[in-house]
Design goal:
Layout lengths: L1 E2 L4 E3 L4 E2 L35 E7 L2 E7 L16 E20 L3 E19 L5 E16 L2 E16 L3 E17 L2 E18 H13 L2
Antiparallel strand pairs: 1-2, 2-3, 4-5, 6-7, 7-8, 8-9, 9-10, 10-11
Amino acid sequence: MYYLNTGYYDPNIGRFINADVSTSNPHSINGFNLYSYANNNPILDSKFIGGLHIVSTNGSKITNFVLNYNIKIPNGSAKNKNYWDPHAKGKWFDTDWPEFFNFTHDKIEFVNWNFSLYKGSLYLDHNENHSLYIAGGNISTYLGIGSDGVGLDVGANVLEIGYDGRIIDANVEFLTVGLTLMYKDGIFEFGIGAGWVGYSVTIDIDEILKLFSEDKYGL
């Protein structure tokens, strides 16, 4: 029998012999088994990893000091979790089909078109909220006004390298010309390109407000 920081393990039966689950729930993966370890997924969902044991002897009295540190790894099967999961995606001819003179009851878009000959992204997390990307052969045009904002975006560049995040996007452009000044759909964007190097920065105001709401209400 072995003590593995989280409890006692019996190698003869291949089980922990002390309960790891505080309550039974027939709808969970544990069911009525109180002795399952790490939701039956010890690779992606673990309790404790490592630890430090110090044993001192004072006469006949033995004192055992135990220091554990907890490393929580989110369960990979929980799709709503956001965790470190690097993976890449690429697409040739990444384009939004151009819209010209789009008139509705709440907006007027004179032109709205984005095109990249190729765009490849390295996503850093499971929910793909954060990524590093590279794009080549880019054209962007937008001119519109409406209830969701107003903006101007006219530009072209040969190469673009940037970061896409949940709140802020930023990129550096090479061999570029253009101007971006836009507030649209809760997103503010500013950028300029003239010559060899340009840049643009995007701030998602709606996502900032959503984060404050999550912190306030614990969502």
